[in-house]
Fold this sequence. Notes:
There is one protein chain. With 141 residues, this protein is mostly helical. The chain is built from five helices and no strands. Helix 3 packs antiparallel against helix 5. The longest helix has 51 residues, at 59-109. It is elongated.
Amino acid sequence: MIMETSMFDKPFKAYFKKWDIDTDFFPMTHLEFPVLLLAFYILTVLYYQPAATPKIRDTSSKIKQKKAASSNDFTKKFVLSLHNLILCIFSVLCFVNTAPVIYNFFINIGWRKASCGLIQKQYEYDYGYWSFLFYLSKYYE
Length: 141
């Protein structure tokens, strides 16, 4: 699948050609993806930012709120910890499936020679699959 050059990529097209960077082979490397997703992220964070709550002076209300919040805090911490554990396991899986390929290229071929074209062939196999999943996970995180 060949994509048209985006308006974000046009100023850098000469550099892409000079350094032999094929953004058609790696379509998610077009600059519109990170730029637009960053804008989306900033807008959603600003939109969903909770409003500042006024300070409560009534101590009996504070005690009731603390009791209700303590049981709710455990659930939030548990869900957050579970989420972080899943992300950690996923990152380890990505590392385990991509590190041997990188190591092999570094030791047997040399980093410069491998990163200037030979590694593109690996994207058709497991390395490409796990690299792509890891790349997509960065948008999620």
